[in-house]
Design brief:
Blueprint lengths: L7 E3 L8 E3 L4 H11 L3 E10 L4 E13 L3 E3 L5 H5 L4 H21 L5 E5 L2 H4 L4 H11 L8 E6 L7 H13 L3 E7 L5 H7 L4 E4 L1 H4 L6 H16 L3 E5 L4 H9 L4 E3 L7 E2 L3 H7 L4 H11 L1
Parallel strand pairs: 4-6, 6-7, 7-8, 8-9, 9-10, 10-11
Antiparallel strand pairs: 1-2, 3-4, 3-11, 3-12, 4-5
The structure holds ligand C2E and magnesium ion (3 copies).
């Protein structure tokens, strides 16, 4: 919705706060328009725990069903979003949509977590907690510990003095955090030490080649054991083959996400996918070798 000055107002139904975001470029303008027109949607990718043989979560991944250009992936528009005033309104749209979905899944007896990617700008906007509380009140059916906020270690997250208190307040509300793309930032170990994230997600660039690259394997093993030392759970992303899954199970990394399990899928495909999923027998065998 626009006001008389041509500024765009963004409003998420039933949120207590109304955000005003001023358009700064035609592209930003178009993204706001797309959100208002319902062109943005979320796909979901399963996260599984193979030692328990369970689907533990679904990560929400934003897509833009562009009327002319077709289905666009976040790589083509999220950099602009994350570096502009769109970070908050788009973040609120994602949060709201993911919680609508989580509420629906829970009503169907599906009780996995929902993973939501959060931009640093959104986290640091000064009213993140206020909005989060409003959100939790709006979705009382979704327990806060079913909400897993994924934050990427990046230069944008440099201001730890600002970020850590926000995270700690969210933790008090029962929210979980995952440190996404772990290992790609310039100060990973500082983040590991200072950010209260329950889960470390090893970046896919380290995971992809562990079946043929001994250095990558050593890195993934080291991050897994480091995470254990810090009492964090560890997830490997970018698991593209069954063989990679088996190796991960052997080295004690039991949470996985990747094309070998499933590509991201539309929300309405998730329930039947979950019903049909079972872990690869080799993975479970590899797990048992280590743990029993
Ligand atoms: P991410 O959070 O690290 O998500 C993982 C990305 O890797 C996703 O790409 C996913 O589709 C892809 N992927 C998953 N498994 C595999 C695999 O086995 N092999 C390969 N090659 N790729 C795999 P996608 O959906 O294009 O998203 C890219 C990035 O965009 C995300 O990285 C995240 O940083 C950002 N993003 C996505 N949705 C949102 C959102 O709603 N909000 C924010 N702030 N960022 C988002
Ligand atoms: Mg993520
Ligand atoms: Mg990632
Ligand atoms: Mg990423």
């Amino acid at each position: 919705v626009r006001n008389h000055k041509g500024e765009i107002f963004w409003y998420v139904a039933n949120f207590t706060k109304i955000d005003k975001e001023i358009a700064q470029s035609p592209q930003i303008d178009r993204i706001m328009e797309g959100i208002a027109n319902g062109e943005f949607l979320l796909h979901y990718q399963p996260q599984v725990d193979i030692s328990r043989g369970m689907v533990i979560g679904m990560e929400a991944l934003i897509r833009w069903q562009h009327p002319e250009e077709g289905l666009l992936f976040p790589g083509s528009f999220m950099p602009l979003v994350e570096n502009s005033d769109l970070a908050t309104p788009v973040g609120k749209f994602v949060m709201h949509s993911a919680l609508v979905q989580a509420r629906l899944w829970r009503s169907q007896g599906l009780d996995f977590r929902v993973g939501i990617n959060i931009s640093p700008r959104h986290l640091e906007n000064g009213h993140f907690i206020e909005d989060l509380i409003a959100c939790l009140q709006h979705f009382p059916e979704v327990p806060p510990d079913m909400i897993d906020l994924e934050i990427v270690e990046s230069a944008a997250l440099e201001n730890l003095d600002k970020v850590v208190p926000v995270m700690e307040e969210a933790l008090r509300l029962g929210i979980r955090f995952t440190l996404d793309d772990f290992g790609t930032g310039h100060s990973s170990l500082t983040y590991l030490q200072k950010l209260p994230a329950k889960t470390i997600k090893i970046d896919q660039s380290f995971v992809r080649n562990i079946h043929e690259n001994i250095n990558d394997l050593a890195l993934v093993e080291a991050i897994t054991s480091l995470s254990n030392t810090f009492q964090r759970e560890v997830t490997a992303e970018g698991v593209e083959s069954l063989q990679t899954g088996t190796i991960l199970a052997q080295i004690g990394c039991h949470q996985m996400q990747g094309y070998a399990i499933s590509r991201p899928m539309p929300a309405d495909k998730v329930a039947s996918w979950v019903r049909g999923w079972s872990p690869d027998p080799l993975w479970q065998k590899a797990t048992r070798t280590i743990w029993t």
